[in-house]
Design goal:
With 283 residues, the chain is an alpha/beta fold. 51% of the residues lie in helices and 13% in strands. The chain has a seven-stranded parallel β-sheet, with helices on both faces.
C-alpha cells in the first residue's frame, strides 16, 4: 500500500533524495520548499503524485495551512519528515542574539510546528510516522557548533518525549542522526561557510582550522543510499527511536558516551554529598 509523505526542505540535499525515493516506488509526496520553482522537475517527472508547497517553516500559520492542504489533497498523511534546517557556525562568544534565535526558529520551532499541525490527523487515523532529521551534533557538541547543537539536542528531547506521548495512538517516531553527506556537489558542506566571525582571535581561528580539517577528512555519505535506508525505516513495524546514518561518527560517539558514564561514576561521592545522603549515612 502506497504511503503519503509530507517532507520539509525538499528543494535539495537529503530532503530531495527522500522525496525522489518515495516517489520512485509509487508513494505520494507533499514536498515543501521556500520556492516551489525548485520542485518543478519533480512535478514534471511524477505529475499528480507530487503536491508542491511553498513553505517557510518559521511561519507557524503557513505550516498549519500547508499540512492541512496536504491532508485535504491526498486524503491522509502517513510519513511526516522534518528535514528543513541549517547549521549556524560560530563560537558562543561570537554569536549574535539574532544568530541564535534564527537557528532555533528554523531547526527547533519549525519542526515543532509541523509536528503539532500533523498530529491531529495521525491520531485520528490511528497510524503514522514522524521522522525527525537530527544530526551527530545532536548527540555531541563540537567547537563552533553550539547554536546548531543546541537546536538538535532540543529536537532529540522533543522527539523522545513525543514518542512516548503518541505510542498509544499508533504513531511512531524516529530520529535520524546523519553524519556528513555529499549533498553539495559531491562534497561535505563547508563547516565554516556561514560562520559569524568577530575580530580575529588566534584560539578561535585555530579551532576553525581544526574543525575544517576534520570535516575535510570525513568520507561523505551517499544521499541516495540514505534515502533507501529511510524507506526501510518507514516500512518497519518496529522502527528505531534513534538511528545513525553513516558510520564516520560512531567511534566518536562511543567515546563520548563512555566518557560521560565514567565522569558520572568518578564523581558519585560528590553527587551523594550534594543530595545529603552521605552525611545522613554517617550520622
Amino acid at each position: 500500500m502506497s504511503k503519503v509523505w509530507f517532507v520539509t526542505g525538499s528543494s535539495r540535499g537529503l530532503g530531495r533524495d527522500f522525496v525522489e525515493a518515495a516517489l520512485s516506488r509509487g508513494d505520494k509526496v507533499a514536498a515543501t520548499a521556500r520556492s516551489t520553482a525548485s520542485l518543478d522537475a519533480l512535478v514534471a517527472a511524477h505529475g499528480a503524485a507530487v503536491l508542491p508547497l511553498e513553505l517557510d517553516v518559521t511561519d507557524k500559520p503557513a505550516v498549519f495551512a500547508s499540512v492541512r492542504r496536504a491532508r485535504e489533497h491526498f486524503g491522509r498523511l502517513d510519513v511526516i519528515v522534518n528535514n528543513a534546517g541549517y547549521a549556524q557556525v560560530g563560537a558562543i562568544e561570537e554569536l549574535t542574539e539574532q544568530d541564535l534565535r534564527d537557528q532555533l526558529e528554523t531547526n527547533l520551532f519549525g519542526a515543532v510546528w509541523v509536528i503539532q499541525a500533523a498530529l491531529p490527523y495521525l491520531r485520528e487515523q490511528g497510524a503514522g510516522h514522524v521522522v525527525q532529521l537530527s544530526s551527530a551534533a545532536g548527540l555531541m557538541a563540537m567547537p563552533l557548533s553550539g547554536a546548531y547543537s543546541a537546536s538538535k539536542w532540543a529536537l532529540e528531547a522533543v522527539n523522545e518525549s513525543l514518542a512516548q506521548e503518541v505510542a498509544g495512538f499508533g504513531v511512531k517516531v524516529t530520529v535520524i542522526e546523519p553524519g556528513g553527506f555529499a549533498t553539495r556537489g559531491g562534497q561535505n558542506p563547508d563547516p565554516l561557510a556561514n560562520g559569524h566571525l568577530s575580530d580575529p582571535d588566534p584560539i578561535y581561528d585555530g579551532l576553525r582550522r581544526r574543525i575544517a580539517a576534520f570535516a575535510g577528512k570525513q568520507l561523505a555519505g551517499d544521499p541516495a543510499a540514505a534515502a533507501q535506508a529511510l524507506l526501510t525505516i518507514v516500512d518497519s513495524d518496529d522502527p528505531p527511536l534513534r538511528v545513525l546514518f553513516g558510520q564516520g561518527f560512531y567511534p566518536m560517539l562511543q567515546q563520548v558516551y563512555a566518557d560521560r558514564l565514567r565522569t558520572w561514576a568518578d564523581w558519585q561521592d560528590l553527587s551523594a554529598r550534594a543530595h545529603g545522603t552521605l552525611d545522613q549515612e554517617t550520622r
